[in-house]
Amino acid sequence: MVLTPMGLRFRGRLLPCAVGRGGVVADKREGDGATPAGVHRVVGLLYRPDRLPRPAPWARPILPGDLWCDESGHPLYNQPARAPLAASHEALRRADPLYDLVLLTDWNWPRAEPGRGSAIFLHQWRRPRHPTAGCIGFSRADLLWLAARAVPGTRLLVPDELAGRLGRRAAVAQRQ
Question: L,D-TPase catalytic domain: from which residue to which, for each copy (predicted)?
């Protein structure tokens, strides 16, 4: 997978996508809303079993109470967690469809450095071209296509050259 100004290239296809509202940055920080440049790897696949069939044999279900810790000083920072959790976190099981299917990346994982950012996922976008909080967003159909073909270890290249080029309200081109 390679992020380009026109979309994400993977297996001969160009998929429209959206990046973080802070654009692409070389120096990711927690809460900056940016997508980190670099070479990342897919390390997990989560799905809502009440909304989707299992997308791949290695996918894990998102259950009630599943969270992702985003409090940089907490021992579970940038790791999955279970409710109740007093530390700052994101609920993985949401009312909207954004996290019905999530490809996890190894950004700042497994040994998270406090403040470097957490939860850089590939997930469904809110609407076409709408920026994320730092993740990479796709249409549901394209995300399902990706999930069916990605495997643990699949590389995701976000070129350093994109840093500063995809700025505020950053989103890459729609399919023609």
Answer: 1-159
